[in-house]
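The protein record passed on below.

***
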Amino acid sequence: MALTPTLPQGASDGSRQLVASPLLPEGFKVPASRYVNPSTRMRALLDTEPFLFGPGVYDPMGAELVMYYGFKAVYFSGYSFAIGHLGTTDMDLYSNVEIADAARRTVSALRKFQLTMAVGDPEKGVQPKHLDIPPVVVDMDGGYGNIFNVQRTTELYVNAGVAATHIEDQVLPKRCGHIGGKALIPVSEMVGKLRMARAVADDLGNRDFVVIARTDGLSAVDAPEPLRKMDLAIDRGLRYLDTGIPDLLWCEFPTSERGPVETFTGAIRKRFPDARFAFNWSSSFKWFKDPNPLTFAELGEMGMKFIFITLGAQHAEGFGLSELLQAMSKQQQDGYIALQRKEFEQGQDVPTKSHHFFSGVPYHHLLGKAYDAARLGKEFVEELPEDRVV
C-alpha cells in the first residue's frame, strides 16, 4: 500500500529541505521529497508548473540521465518498451507483467540513483548532487485485456511507485497511434477500464494516482458510433471527462499541425473550462521541417499540462550508437578513442563518462564500510592513476 511516512528532521538546501536516510553514510542527506508519494509530487507539479515535460525513456539508465539533468518527470512508453526490450514494434506484443516489471526496475533505479548522487565521490572531490526523483508516467496501452487485466496492471504500477498511467480506447491488440488501421472499443468499455484503474489506486491508498485517458478517435478507421475524425475525438474526450475520472485527457494527433490541436482543446474547454491535457510531441513527426512548430510553452498555454516525447531516447541511442559503430568499422580502436575524447572534453557534463561513478561505486564503498561489509570499504580499492583509468 502506498503510504507517505513522517519526514525525519533535516537541513535546508536553498528552497529544498534535505534529510537523512538510513541508506546513506552519516553526514550525507537527500531531498525530503524522497518521502513524498510520486503521484502526490506529480499533482503538485501539475498545479504549479506551466507544463510538466517528461523525456521518453525505455530503461533505468535513461531515466537516471533524465533525473541527473533535472527534468521533473520521466515518461516510459509502450513503444519505447517494445523497441528497447523486445526489439519489435508497438502492436501489443508484450504483456502487462513485462512492462510493469520494467517500470518497477526504473522507479527502483531512480531511488538508488538519488542515494549514489547524494554521496558524490569524496575521494575525487566530486561534490554531492541533491536530485529530486522525477515522477514516472507509464503507458498502459489498452489495458492488456479486459477490466480485470486493468485491475492487475494498475496494482502492479501503483505498488511499483509509478506516479501516473494512461489508457487508450483502441480495440486490442492495439497499435501505435501513428500506424494505420486503428479501431475503437465502445465508450462504456473504455469508461469501465478508467473506473477500474481509479478504483484500484484508491483501494491501495494512493488517491493521488494520476489517470490519463487517451483517445485515438481522430484517426480511427472503425468505431461503434457513426462519428468520425475530429467529431469522434471530441465526443470521446467529452464523454470520458463526463465521468469525472481522468485527471488529464490525451488525443493522439496524426500530424504536427497546430490547427487540430487548437480545435480539439477549444471544443473540450467549452464544456470543461479547467480541463487539462497530455500531449505527445511525437518522434513520428518531422518537426525540423515544420516552419512554425508547436513549442512547449504554447502547448502549456493551451492546457497541455503534461508533454512528452515518446521515443526520444531511442532516437538518441540510434544516432549516437550508429555514429560510434560506423567510426569503429572504419577506424577500429580510434573510433572509440574519439568518443572518449568527446566525453572527457573540458567543460562537458557527461556523468556516464565514468561508469563507476554513474553506477554508484563510491556510494557502495562508503556504505559498505559503514555496514562493516567484508572487502567493500575504500581501503580495499586498488589505487590507479586517475589520468589513465576512469
Remarks:
- The domain at 22-287+294-313 is CATH 3.20.20.60 (TIM Barrel).
